[in-house]
Amino acid sequence: MTVGSGTGIAVGDTAQARPDLTGAELTGGLNGWSTTASTEYGVEEMVLLDGPVGIVSKAMDERDTSLIMPSGTALAATWNPELVSEVGQLIGQQGRERGVNVVLGPNLNLPRSPLSGRAFEMFSEDPFLTGVLGAAWVQGLQSQGVGSCTKHVVANDTETERRRMNSLVDPVTLRETYLRPFETAVRSANPWMLMMAYNRVNGTHCSQHSGLIGILKNDWQYDGVVVSDWFGVDDTVGAATAGLDLEMPGPARYLGAHFADAVAAGVVPEPRLRDSVERVIRLADRSGQRSGGTAPLPARLRTQEEQRDVLTRAAAASFVLLENRDGMLPLDKSRIRTLAVVGPNAVKPCFQGGTFATVRPEGELVTPLEAIREAYGPDVAVLYEPGTVPSSALPLTELGSTAPDGTSGVLLEILAPDADEVVYCEVRQTSSFVWFGPVPGLGAGIPGRARITARLRLESAARWALGAGGTGISSLSVDGKRLLEVPPPAPDDVMGVVARAETQQITLDLPAGEVEVVVEMAFQPGRVQAITAVAAPERTSDPLTDAVAVAAGVETVIVVVGDEQASSRESADRTTAALDPVCDRLVEAVAAVNRETVVVVNASRAVLLPWADKVKALLMTWFPGQEFGRALASVLTGSTAPSGRLPVSFPAQNEDIPGWGHGLDAELTLDYAASEPMGYKHFEATGRPPRYPFGFGLGYTEFALVDALAAAPAGVRQVNPEDGVEGVSVQVTIGNTGPFTGRDVVQIYGTAPGETGFRLMGFTAVDVTAGATSAARIDVDPLGFRRWDASASQWVVPSGDWELRVARNAADEGILCRITV
Questions:
Q1: Per-domain residue ranges for the chain?
Q2: CA Rg value for the chain
Q3: Where are the beta strands (DSSP E) in 459-494?
Q4: Residue 5: its pLDDT value, please?
Q5: Which CATH fold topology does 309-389+541-686 show?
Q6: Are 130 and 79 in contact (CB under 8 A)?
């Protein structure tokens, strides 16, 4: 029975007591970012904004800025819960300063494949590492009095057809792998909200999945709010009965008043409504949004300088040194006189993917090129060539556009639907606009038109690509001549369409001088509207030639390549783990003319590195936040030593990716059996060596494991299987055999009796001075001893001899210890 979109339920006469329907309005959102208030319960509106990498503007306005944090994968590469918690605190402070009550993050889904378009938000392919670091992020955030909405429960690692696709996952894999990070976060940090995913799991949409929500609320005793992803509900009774507490965005189409109608009609139990209302009230209490309550105090507020310091340290700690032949790094300033920096990401680094949660950077933004020039000073000649051109078109404002009055930017106008009356206009510094709810000058739920007008001055005649798109019928005109009409997108994934800012493009020859570009979009009533205009000039010369010429004439080359924002996208997956071919081509060409080449990869995921053996040094820097430039300069000069370790396995070729060649079937089902086990377990099971293994990373010194000894408490058989085995630890000693003080990450991988595979069950970072040894105790993950018994639907702890391998990465043989459980 579907209820919503204005459809009520007839309530017949009944002799039974009238159910308590008060507070039902709290179960539906108010608008795109706020919950509904209740005077009866003293609950005020609560602001929920996206924020895995920074606080998003509720108005999607480029003038609303916030600090861009390291992405989830970058944070996972630190293997440092304390530092990740500091980043959580920082985003919590940013949220407080912007009136945010709940931040939509972190994303604790697992990057089952590097082809996932949203992998950059995720932490690690390992559920234990993801859960530990995700919980640290949540703890840091919530210590500031701002709640975490941890997302997306569950198996939401495929963006293709994400609103309709079905993740087919067996019960063991679901419990032990994909639910595990969320369980760890609930146990360790208790996020104030959990967001259900868009997709289906084993045939049922997550927001209407009583089995999944039952695990959260019953098995884990979770006491927070269970919320839908935006527009992620399509059935009143299904969602309400399953246990969903809050529908977003508002106004509600399925919960809210419809929830009350369903209870009144007797098709949803009254206790379900009372449970939802109580949870939303609890959220208001926790966030200080209830009348008479006390607003939570922040744990720590940092100055702007301190905030930048956190971002710089986190970025540098995330960098993973994959190659360093002949001790190429650090680059000694005193021995270099000429240095070339090449690559597009040196001047336009990538900080985030193309998601709905795009963040505009706050304050000063120092590029890698600027930071390198500053670090090496006037005595080193630093030359630059891009070496490639952008593979995607750019916003008009990045091409120097002006409004018709000559002001820098574009003219944005909102017009009435059937007339040329302009009801709103202003000059803006972007050519991509989103309105979540009211459209300026018109309000919400009203048809109309949006128009972008921009002038481009061309020094000479050239061939250009121009593009337009939006949520309605769009058109593109040049100098008054209409050249392109773009139909509206399919309505089944509005959020994805908006996030991708999809356009259709044409190419044409433009004359020298000034040309006027107009993109207009006619839209019907809807809760999200968007319009985008883009352009790109065609290059008449090959930038690679110039880059190679510069590289051949200097002592050292630093190549900075990686992703563009549009290459990591919400609602679209990849077809390859490779970088853009122009990046590979640039690296190959530069390395061929200068052996002293360092490559910096600014990508969010496991990538193919076919040229890795041809360069002296290779540094993986992920999407490291807006202090990328300073952090990179610090590591290149040796002021900071790289200490990051891979949170994902790097394949040698696409065919080595778990599940390669298997996608959605005709019913849009993705059978996880084709890609399980995934991650480092996949490489062990198949016998295919990864290009770089999970947990791997070099430093500026050398480490060696000296010894390891496991200890277990007496009576470990007397355990509660749900809680695993408490008190097991391993004492390790590690030596620094190199010339510099450094930090290594020691890892423990466990194998149960009768198993052939292994899984991460503990880790710690150890600082060791040059020539010395250091001892550390690593507590073994209690929950890692559990196994899900699908036939009995319960946890069990296998008894017998367990193997604990102490290692420096997943492919390291390490030192083997045994304990008896």
A1: 47-287, 309-389+541-686, 394-537, 703-820
A2: 27
A3: 462-470, 473-478, 481-486
A4: 46
A5: Rossmann fold (3.40.50)
A6: no
- pLDDT tens-digit map of 585-633: 999 999 999 999 999 999 999 999 999 999 999 999 999 999 999 999 9
Strand arrangement of the beta sheet that strand 815-820 belongs to:
759-768, 742-751, 801-807, 815-820
**Residue with tokens 């090959």, as numbered in its chain:** 542
Q: Which CATH class is domain 47-287?
A: alpha beta
pTM value is: 0.93
Decide if pLDDT at 14 tops 50. Answer: no
End-to-end CA distance of the chain: 50
Per-residue pLDDT of 274-294, as tens digits, reads 999 999 999 999 999 999 888
Largest interatomic CA distance in the chain: 92
**HSE-up of residue 209 (Cα within 13 Å, Cβ side):** 27
Residue 258 host element (H or E): helix 257-264
CA–CA distance from 781 to each of 127, 131, 209, 786 (Å)?
A: 12, 11, 29, 10
The answer to whether 104 touches 136, Cβ cutoff 8 Å, is: no
Higher pLDDT, 61 or 798: 798
Least confident of 3-7, 87-91, 216-220, 516-520: 3-7
* Same-fold call for 309-389+541-686 versus 703-820: no
What residues are paired with 817 via a beta bridge?
804
pLDDT for res 357: 63
Cα dihedral 135/138/143/148 (nearest 10): -150
At residue 15, the pLDDT reads 45
Whole-number pLDDT of residue 65: 94
* Fold held by 394-537: Jelly Rolls (2.60.120)
**703-820 belongs to which CATH class?**
mainly beta
Q: Per DSSP, what are the bridge partners of residue 473? A: 522
Query: 53 in the Ramachandran plot: left (φ > 0), alpha (ψ -120 to 50) or beta?
Result: alpha
